[in-house]
């Protein structure tokens, strides 16, 4: 193909924050290579704003009310074939808006970081042949991600790649790239002096992350448990949940070992300053913690992709699943006070650490579809050497 920089369209959704963060990581990586024409489209928000807000409300509420209902729906639809009527109905949302955006921006390649597969059918009906790639942002494969019109899948692990092949996807269409992260997760930086001065080097630092919308339950009990013994200091990230921030601050704000934050962009600095993290198991947060080699404790995962993410890491011996504050304290002390066990967990993390996933994905896209004439893929930047297409 010609050396003209390609135009890229990235389709995401604003359920939680992970799909957007993955999209921004990919966008930044393209921009670092001089590719500036990138369109980020929150398809459902643009096409059906009322429906989008309603489904977001239901999704976030599911963490508090009847999470088993969401989990049951997730599991019941997990292995549906691409031609299933339900999937075809779901994929039809946003068709008109996407078609309009497609012809307005004329992108050369499409990237999904959320499984809304309206695009392949639009391309087929329009008799257009343009590459479509999916970046799966969890450690679990759901049927909504799989479509015969997708040219390449980027997944978190080799186990996911094997699962995709079991489901009939050709191995040469799947790369175990990892989940894309911002560049500050593979460039370790020293915390700012003002931040370091707030921490006691004699105490273990526990990062508590309630999610972008602060929906993780039991935060007050966790803080009470950690602070009452005087052995830990807590960095509590409440996301966009102002009520949670105010609630925790009102109870523990005067405690010298407690530090509350709202929505944080510099999460890499907090992770790099911490000894462990307690979190809901979203795919992006798990990948960020793995990139920082930060021991994980997965608290009350909600049935669905988050529970499956948690089960995967627990099966790998990397992170325990816990459901109450007392069990959490026991798990934290058992790990942080046992140097050999801690070293073993961090060693297991290495097999899943892929902090440069965004670079690997963008390099593979460029080498596959936008290779300048007369140049080999190696001359325009090869993918991570750990990525192998069998």
Automatic annotation (TrEMBL):
Source organism superkingdom: Bacteria
A GO MF label: hexosyltransferase activity
Protein's name in the database: Processive 1,2-diacylglycerol beta-glucosyltransferase
Pfam family, one: MGDG_synth
Subcellular location: Membrane
Diacylglycerol glucosyltransferase N-terminal domain location: 19-180
GO BP annotation list: glycolipid biosynthetic process
Ranges where the Glycosyl transferase family 28 C-terminal domain occurs: 228-358
Family as reported in the entry's similarity comment: Belongs to the glycosyltransferase 28 family.
Keywords recorded for this protein, A-Z: Glycosyltransferase, Transferase
InterPro entries: Diacylglyc_glucosyltr_N, Glyco_trans_28_C, Glycosyltransf_28_UgtP
GO CC term, one of those recorded: membrane
Species: Fontibacillus phaseoli
SUPFAM superfamilies named among the record's database cross-references: UDP-Glycosyltransferase/glycogen phosphorylase
């Amino acid at each position: 193909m010609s050396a003209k920089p390609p135009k890229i369209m990235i389709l995401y959704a604003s359920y939680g924050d992970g799909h957007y963060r993955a999209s921004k990581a990919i966008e930044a990586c393209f921009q670092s290579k001089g590719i500036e024409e990138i369109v980020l489209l929150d398809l459902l928000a643009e096409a059906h704003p009322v429906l989008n807000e309603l489904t977001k409300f239901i999704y976030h509420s599911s963490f508090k009310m009847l999470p088993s209902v969401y989990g049951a729906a997730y599991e019941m639809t997990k292995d549906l074939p691409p031609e299933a009527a339900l999937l075809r109905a779901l994929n039809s949302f946003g068709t008109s808006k996407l078609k309009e955006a497609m012809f307005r921006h004329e992108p050369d390649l499409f990237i999904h970081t959320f499984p809304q597969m309206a695009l392949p059918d639009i391309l087929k009906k329009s008799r257009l042949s343009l590459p479509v790639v999916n970046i799966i942002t969890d450690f679990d494969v759901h049927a909504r991600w799989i479509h015969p019109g997708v040219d390449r899948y980027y997944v978190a692990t080799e186990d996911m790649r094997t699962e995709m092949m079991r489901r009939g996807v050709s191995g040469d269409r799947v790369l175990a790239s990892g989940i894309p992260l911002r560049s500050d997760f593979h460039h370790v930086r020293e915390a700012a002096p003002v931040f370091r001065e707030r921490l006691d080097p004699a105490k273990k630092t526990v990062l508590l992350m309630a999610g972008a919308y602060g929906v993780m339950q039991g935060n007050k009990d966790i803080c009470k448990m950690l602070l009452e013994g005087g052995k830990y200091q807590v960095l509590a990230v409440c996301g966009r949940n102002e009520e949670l921030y105010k609630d925790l601050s009102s109870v523990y704000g005067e405690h010298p070992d407690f530090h509350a934050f709202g929505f944080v962009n510099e999460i890499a600095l907090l992770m790099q300053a911490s000894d462990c993290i307690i979190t809901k198991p979203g795919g992006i947060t798990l990948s960020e913690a793995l990139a920082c080699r930060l021991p994980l404790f997965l608290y009350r995962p909600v049935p669905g992709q988050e529970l499956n993410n948690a089960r995967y890491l627990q099966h790998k011996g990397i992170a325990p699943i816990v459901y109450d504050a007392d069990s959490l304290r026991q798990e934290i002390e058992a790990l942080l006070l046992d140097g050999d066990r801690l070293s073993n967990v961090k060693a297991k993390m290495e097999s899943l650490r892929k902090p440069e996933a965004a670079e690997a994905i963008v390099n593979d896209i460029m080498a596959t579809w936008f290779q300048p004439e007369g140049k080999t893929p190696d001359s325009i930047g090869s993918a991570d050497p750990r990525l192998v297409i069998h």
